[in-house]
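Exercise 7b. C-alpha cells:
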C-alpha cells in the first residue's frame, strides 16, 4: 500500500517529508518484528532507548517512521527518508493505522469489548462459553490466554499491542470466526492499543483502586476506561450498544461521564434504575440461584426469569447476569442463554474451587489482587457460611503500595485467620512488602502470621484448615510463575494447593 492511500483514508496522518508513492506493508513498535517496508513507531514510555531503537530500524532498512510533533527533534529521525506525522495521541494513531493496514478486520467480526477493574476475564469467558455452545465460532483475547475456537495460545498480557492485536483479529477473520470477546484494560485503552477497532458492544463492570503506579490518579483511570465508549461511538457497526453496571463502585461516575458526553450510541444500565437487573440471590457451596429482570423496549412491563448456575458467590451472580444481558442484546434467544449458564466451566484462577481429598474442606484460588476484588471474594465465602475462613495473600512489588494496608484491613474483617505471604515481590524486599501490609491491621490484632515463602504459606494454610472450612488463596490466580527480583520461577497456586491437600 502506498503512503498516498494511507493519507487519503486516514486524514489525521500527514506526510511531513518523503515520497508519497512509497510502498508500505505494516507497522510495528517492536524493532524485532520490523521489516524493510514496515512503518516504525517509537514505543510508548521508553524515551531513554529511542536512539537505540532508531538505529536498529535504520539498519533493517526501514524507510518510514510515524511520529508526533513533540518527537520531531529526537536525534536520528533524519536517517529516515519518509516521516509521517499526526496531531492525534500517537498511540491512537498507531492503533488506527495498524487496523487499516491489517485490512480493518474488526469490520468483518462482532467484537465485544469489556473493561473494568474486576470481572473482565470472567465475563469474556462466560460470553465465549454461551456463544460457542449456541453454535457460533468465537475468539477470546484476554489475561489468561487467547482462544481461536478450540485453539489456546498463552500470551502473558491482557490487551496485546496494536500490531499484534490486529493481526490476531485478521487471523480470526480467516478462520471465519464471528464473535470475538476481548478484555480491554485501562493500559490498552489509554495507550491506543485498541484504537480503530470497530466494536459491536462495550461493557463496563466497575472501577476500584488499582494501577495507580501507571495512572496518575483515579480520574485518569476513569478517563482511560471511558475510551471504550468513545470507541463504540466511532464504530460503524449496526445495532451496536453498551452496557454499564451503574450500582457498583465507579458506576455513578461512569454514568455521569456518559451523560456529559451525550453519545448517540445506545447505552443500557445494569442496576435498579436500569434496563436490566438481578435479585433474590440464593447462594450455596453447590451453586447460585437468582432472578434476572429485563425491561421490554417500548412496552410497559418487565420480563423476569429464574436462573441457576454452578458458579459460586454473589460476584458471579453479577458476572452471569451481565454476560446474559449482553448475549440477549447480541441477538441470542433468552431461553437458550439461560440453559447455557446452568453449567459454566470454571475460569482458571477466578474463584476456582479445589476440594480436599475427602471433600470436607475446600480452597478457593482467585486472582484478587485489589482491595475491592479481595473483599468481594471474602464476602462471597462468608455468604456460603463455612465454619472457618483462612485468607492467604500478599501484594505485588513495584506496584501501587497504597493498597497494601487497605487489603490487610479487609482480610482482618472477613477472615478467621490471615496468612501474609509473597505475591510477585519483583525487585522489592519481600519482608518490607509484608510489613507494609501488616500496618493495616488493627492494634492488638493477632489472628495472623507472615510466611515469606508462598509454598510454605500454602502448606501452612491447608494444615490449619478445619472441616467445612475455606482457604482463600488470593493474588496470583491463573499465573504459573512467581517473579522474585528480575527472574521468573515456576509456581502455580493450583498445583501447590493440590499437593498440600494430598499431604494433609
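Sequence design result:
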Amino acid at each position: 500500500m502506498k503512503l498516498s492511500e494511507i493519507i487519503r483514508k486516514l486524514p489525521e496522518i500527514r506526510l511531513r517529508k518523503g515520497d508519497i508513492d512509497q510502498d508500505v506493508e505494516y507497522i510495528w513498535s517492536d524493532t524485532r518484528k520490523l521489516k524493510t517496508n514496515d512503518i516504525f513507531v517509537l514505543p510508548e514510555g521508553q524515551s531513554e532507548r529511542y536512539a537505540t531503537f532508531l538505529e536498529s530500524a535504520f539498519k533493517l532498512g526501514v524507510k518510514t517512521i510515524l511520529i508526533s510533533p513533540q518527537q520531531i527533534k529526537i536525534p536520528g529521525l533524519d536517517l529516515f527518508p519518509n516521516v509521517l506525522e499526526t496531531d492525534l495521541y500517537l498511540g491512537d494513531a498507531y492503533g488506527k493505522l495498524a487496523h487499516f493496514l491489517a485490512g480493518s478486520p474488526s469490520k468483518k467480526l462482532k467484537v465485544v469489548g469489556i473493561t473494568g477493574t474486576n470481572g473482565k476475564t470472567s465475563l469474556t469467558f462466560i460470553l465465549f462459553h454461551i456463544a460457542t455452545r449456541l453454535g457460533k465460532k468465537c475468539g477470546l483475547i484476554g489475561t489468561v490466554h487467547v482462544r481461536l475456537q478450540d485453539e489456546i495460545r498463552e500470551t502473558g498480557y491482557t490487551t496485546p499491542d496494536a500490531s499484534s492485536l490486529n493481526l490476531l483479529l485478521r487471523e480470526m477473520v480467516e478462520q471465519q470466526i464471528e464473535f470475538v470477546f476481548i478484555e480491554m484494560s485501562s493500559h490498552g485503552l489509554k495507550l491506543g492499543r485498541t484504537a480503530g477497532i470497530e466494536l459491536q458492544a462495550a461493557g463496563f463492570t466497575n472501577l476500584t483502586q488499582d494501577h495507580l503506579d501507571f495512572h496518575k490518579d483515579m480520574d485518569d483511570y476513569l478517563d482511560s476506561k471511558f475510551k471504550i465508549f468513545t470507541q463504540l461511538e466511532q464504530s460503524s457497526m449496526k445495532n451496536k450498544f453498551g452496557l454499564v453496571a451503574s450500582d457498583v463502585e465507579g458506576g455513578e461516575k461512569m454514568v455521569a461521564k456518559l451523560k456529559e458526553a451525550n453519545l448517540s450510541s445506545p447505552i443500557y444500565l445494569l442496576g435498579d434504575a436500569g434496563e436490566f437487573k438481578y435479585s433474590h440471590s440464593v447462594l450455596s457451596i453447590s451453586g447460585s440461584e437468582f432472578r434476572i429482570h429485563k425491561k421490554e423496549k417500548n412496552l410497559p412491563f418487565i420480563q423476569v426469569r429464574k436462573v441457576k448456575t454452578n458458579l459460586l458467590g454473589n460476584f458471579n451472580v453479577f458476572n452471569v447476569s451481565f454476560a446474559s444481558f449482553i448475549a440477549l442484546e447480541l441477538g441470542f434467544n433468552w431461553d437458550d442463554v439461560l440453559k447455557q449458564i446452568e453449567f459454566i466451566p470454571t475460569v482458571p484462577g477466578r474463584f476456582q474451587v479445589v476440594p480436599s481429598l475427602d471433600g470436607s474442606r475446600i480452597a478457593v484460588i482467585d486472582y484478587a489482587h485489589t482491595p475491592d476484588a479481595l473483599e468481594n471474594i471474602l464476602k462471597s465465602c462468608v455468604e456460603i457460611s463455612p465454619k472457618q475462613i483462612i485468607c492467604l495473600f500478599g501484594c505485588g512489588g513495584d506496584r501501587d503500595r497504597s493498597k497494601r494496608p487497605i487489603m490487610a484491613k479487609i482480610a482482618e474483617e472477613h477472615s478467621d485467620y490471615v496468612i501474609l505471604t509473597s505475591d510477585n515481590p519483583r525487585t522489592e524486599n519481600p519482608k518490607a512488602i509484608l510489613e507494609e501490609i501488616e500496618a493495616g491491621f488493627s492494634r492488638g490484632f493477632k489472628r495472623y502470621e507472615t510466611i515469606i515463602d508462598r509454598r510454605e504459606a500454602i502448606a501452612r494454610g491447608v494444615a490449619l484448615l478445619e472441616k467445612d472450612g475455606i482457604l482463600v488463596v488470593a493474588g496470583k490466580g491463573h499465573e504459573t510463575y512467581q517473579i522474585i527480583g528480575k527472574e521468573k520461577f515456576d509456581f502455580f497456586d493450583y498445583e501447590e494447593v493440590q499437593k498440600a491437600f494430598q499431604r494433609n
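Instructor comment: The chain has a mean pLDDT of 92. The CA atoms of residues 206 and 249 lie 6 Å apart.
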